Amino acid sequence: MASDTRRTPRLRRALGELSSLALPGLIAAGLLFALPADTRSQGERPARKESSDPPPLCGEWHRGTGETTPLDLGEIKRAYAGLKTRLSQDLARESRPALPDLDRPYEAGLPACRDDRVRTEPLSQARGARFRGSRLYFLQATDLGRLSIPPEVERTPGAEVLLLGVKSLRDLPEIARRVGRPVSLASAEFARALGVRCANTWVRISEKGDTLELHEMR
């Protein structure tokens, strides 16, 4: 009886120590089961079963206007086909080079020279650098029956003939044949930039490109 009495306090102390050690574990286990499944760790989540079934339709009601429009897929297809055709035609038209009207005349707008005159003028370096030593003849060629070039131009093979006026663009090949060299159309702005005031004018630019010698001819 005495031995049982001595063992009782020891047993109680052992149970107390055991309960103090096990209590935190029991509390943690209870909290684990009390928490929702989404808050558990990834290792504790149950594996989801993959399914190829489509998701369920939304069962909620959404406010709308109450109006519906029928959708004609055939009409949409035809509309896109028509748009594609029109776009292709527009692009094809834009890619074609615009042909000039060969029957139209060309007139730069400079008057004919009234007197024979020789002038000398300075030329800016920016302009003269491009035309050093050039020989240019600005010609009015609206009347093929009276077409001619002065002897100094004819004796200079490198001279360029620039037309300030023609009756028809179709005359360009015939004019080139008669003057014995290629011809080009010249604008009034280009002619005035080189000191030309009238047609017909023979222009000689110095080798340095700083001086213009202009022969105005009736």
- The overall average pLDDT, rounded, is 78
CATH architecture of the domain at 106-216: 3-Layer(aba) Sandwich
What form results from the Cα inertia axes?
A: elongated
Class of the domain at 106-216, according to the CATH hierarchy?
Alpha Beta
The portion of residues forming beta strands comes to 15-25%
- Tally of contiguous helical segments: 6
- Unreliable runs, pLDDT <50, ≥5 residues? 1-5, 28-35, 37-43
H and E order: HHEEHEHEHEHEE
Topology:
Elements: H1 2-34, H2 73-95, E1 106-107, E2 117-122, H3 125-128, E3 135-141, H4 151-154, E4 160-166, H5 172-179, E5 183-185, H6 188-193, E6 201-205, E7 211-216
Parallel strand pairs: 3-4, 4-5
Antiparallel strand pairs: 1-4, 2-7, 3-6, 6-7
In short:
By secondary structure, the protein is of the alpha/beta class. Helices cover 36% and strands 17% of the residues. Residues 1-5, 28-35 and 37-43 have low confidence and may be disordered.
Structural commentary:
With 218 residues, the protein is of the alpha/beta class. The relative contact order is 0.14. It is built from 6 helices and 7 strands; from the N terminus they run H-H-E-E-H-E-H-E-H-E-H-E-E. The chain is elongated, with a radius of gyration of 51 Å. It starts with a helix and ends with a strand. The protein has helices spanning 2-34, 73-95, 125-128, 151-154, 172-179, 188-193, and strands at residues 106-107, 117-122, 135-141, 160-166, 183-185, 201-205, 211-216. It has a domain at 106-216: Glutaredoxin, CATH 3.40.30. It is 36% helix and 17% strand. Strands 1, 2, 3, 4, 5, 6 and 7 form a 7-stranded mixed β-sheet that branches.
